[in-house]
Amino acid sequence: MITKGFKLGMMLQLAIGPVCVFIFTLGGNKGLLTAELAALGVAIIDALYILLAIFGIASFIDKERVKQVLKLFGAIIVALFGLHIIVGTFGWKVLPNVSLFNGIKTENSFVEGMVLTASNPLTILFWAGVFSTKIAEEKLTRADVYLFGLGSVLSTIFFLTVIAVFGSITRQFLPVLVISAINFTVGLALVYFAFRMFFKKT
């Protein structure tokens, strides 16, 4: 079941999203370790969402009014990250270095990875659908479901590690001007993801 979850998770990772481009940018700007910390934050939130899906909280999230509020909140968060990266290429900042949780700052990559992933709580609905289908098709036990979820989380860590490595390599071999152009493009991509998230029918 771990292998099956890993395979499905890898298929989902291939759909490049805001988290992927964010990890790539971190690897390019601040190195592999910083990007890996962000990837760990992403994996933790993914694991939390999978557990919530298993426990059935998706039925609450699926209410139309709640879904719309969460979608708006998620789009705003992703857009802010995108704008932060865009203006950062000019030496400006959108997100202030506000201390969170006893001194952790918004520039902490681990926290940023968690926040960006948590900004799309509708992921719970997706995982709920996946697990419902798997349980019905393969008559999974609760232990099987947990192992399937573990495989999915492992795929997140593996894929984002690869992305972080590629990002850190570009920092070593590409000129600063090219890196700035990539950052600007990534920021635009995040803003695009935010608009698509907001206007996408649920």
From TrEMBL:
PANTHER family: ARGININE EXPORTER PROTEIN ARGO (PTHR30086), ARGININE EXPORTER PROTEIN ARGO-RELATED (PTHR30086:SF20)
Species the sequence originates in: Desulfosporosinus acidiphilus (strain DSM 22704 / JCM 16185 / SJ4)
Membrane topology designation: Multi-pass membrane protein
Annotated GO MF terms: amino acid transmembrane transporter activity
Main location: membrane
InterPro entries: LeuE-type (IPR001123)
Protein's UniProt name: Putative threonine efflux protein
Chain ranges passing through the membrane: 37-60, 72-94, 114-133, 145-167, 173-195
GO cellular component, one term: plasma membrane
Entry keyword set: Cell membrane, Membrane, Transmembrane, Transmembrane helix
Subcellular location: Cell membrane
Xref: Pfam families: LysE
Keyword Transferase: no
